[in-house]
UniProtKB/TrEMBL annotation:
Swiss-Prot/TrEMBL keywords: Cytoplasm, GTP-binding, Magnesium, Metal-binding, Molybdenum cofactor biosynthesis, Nucleotide-binding, Transferase
GO terms of molecular function: GTP binding; metal ion binding; molybdenum cofactor guanylyltransferase activity
UniProt remark on domains: The N-terminal domain determines nucleotide recognition and specific binding, while the C-terminal domain determines the specific binding to the target protein.
Taxonomic lineage of the native organism: Bacteria, Bacillati, Bacillota, Bacilli, Bacillales
Record-stated family: Belongs to the MobA family.
Gene name for this UniProt entry: mobA
Protein name: Probable molybdenum cofactor guanylyltransferase
Amino acids binding GTP: 8-10, 20, 65, 94
Organism (species): Salisediminibacterium beveridgei
Amino acid sequence: MEITGIILAGGKSSRMGRNKALLQVGDETNIGRIKRLIQTRTDHQILITNDPDSYEFLQMPMYEDEHKEHGPLAGIEVALKHSETPWNLIIACDMPFADMEIARFLCKKVQESGAMAAVPEYNGKRHPLFACYHKDFLPYVVDALEEGEKRMVNVLDQVNAITVTEEDLKDAGWSEAHLKLAFYNMNRPEDYEWVQTQQV
């Protein structure tokens, strides 16, 4: 199962007040950490960003949104267009503790089910920006963007997408404490302060 790891770094970090992808987590940048993690469990890696100059240090293929101001959906569109593998792991740059074993679990689930996407659910919320997608999801994204749709969950509701529940993840052996870290979103200054208290 060949997988492309895709980092989305197209947001404006408005709630953080500064570029959250470039914040220091441990002894590396947040996005550098995520790149290192996805390299351990994916065969190819690409970055989606509208500010490529800020990420040249990563030395990885970069692509910009074709539909500006359309949020993560536009990032997924260009990511799937440029991916050369059927399966694709999408991960947002605000998840410094994203677990790559969970990522592989998601990709295995979607392959076994024959679905087009596997999206985890934790604490009552789906996480479409830490999920596994088949390249066949692309036409639905394109159609949605052309119709002015910006919400990822609305597109997912139109296709054969499976939800990997919190219970599924716990049954597979991950604890509540581990899941809290794995799905932690770093969006505000207080979120970053908490991240800095963790051992990484």
